[in-house]
Amino acid sequence: MLKFAPLLAAILYGLAFYQFSAWRTRRQLSSRSTELADPAMTRVMAPMALALGVPRIKVYLYEIAQVNGLAAPDGRIFLTRGFYNRFRQGDVTAEELASVVAHELGHVALGHSRRRMIDFSGQNAIRVAGGMILSRLIPGFGPAIANLLTGLLAARLSRQDEYEADAYAAALLTRAGIGTEPQKALFRKLEALTQSGTPAPAWFLSHPKTAERIAAIETLERRWVPQDR
Known about the structure:
Keywords: Hydrolase, Metal-binding, Metalloprotease, Protease, Zinc. One of its GO terms (biological process) is proteolysis involved in protein catabolic process. It comes from Mangrovicoccus algicola. By secondary structure, the protein is of the alpha+beta class. It is built from 8 helices and 4 strands; from the N terminus they run αβαβββαααααα. It has helices at 5-31, 39-52, 81-88, 94-109, 112-137, 142-175, 181-194, 210-224; strands at 33-35, 59-62, 69-71, 77-80. It is globular, with a radius of gyration of 20 Å.
């Protein structure tokens, strides 16, 4: 039993750390955000709300300069001030920004926050176990290799979540009559909007590559179009 104590401790630490991080994130978001009140965005999101069977979709404006959208652990949807400013400047359309909201709604609806909590705890246990085993095989390098392998696993799971949220958004946008073109158009703009530098190797990325995300959506579209017999 004692030999499993480090693994149990790692799992409990992972759960506790995730809960603390979620609490800290909620607190920070609440202190630096207000509900978005923009008539153009309200009009575009109205069909999305109708498709979901809710009166309206609440979106909050997070006062940071970065271009991003996020779903908080408590289910709230946020757009950053930097992203909203790009919309006001005409760099992003209301429909494109609505596709970000649809994507984040996908994270909430599919329970990705809860899944990340479980994954994080499991990855922490893998990191500890892997470090112990590899330290015996490769003294001095075991923990570093275990951290690297765990990071690769985390990136792969994150990419899976992004594909799922993309698919949810595509379905919602299609049902709302907006379609997927704004979603795909925004993907093509993201690198310039976020001013990202040299891309990391694909296996280190927490988000799929733009071309792969667009291709996945187009595959869904082909499935949804009735085939002539």
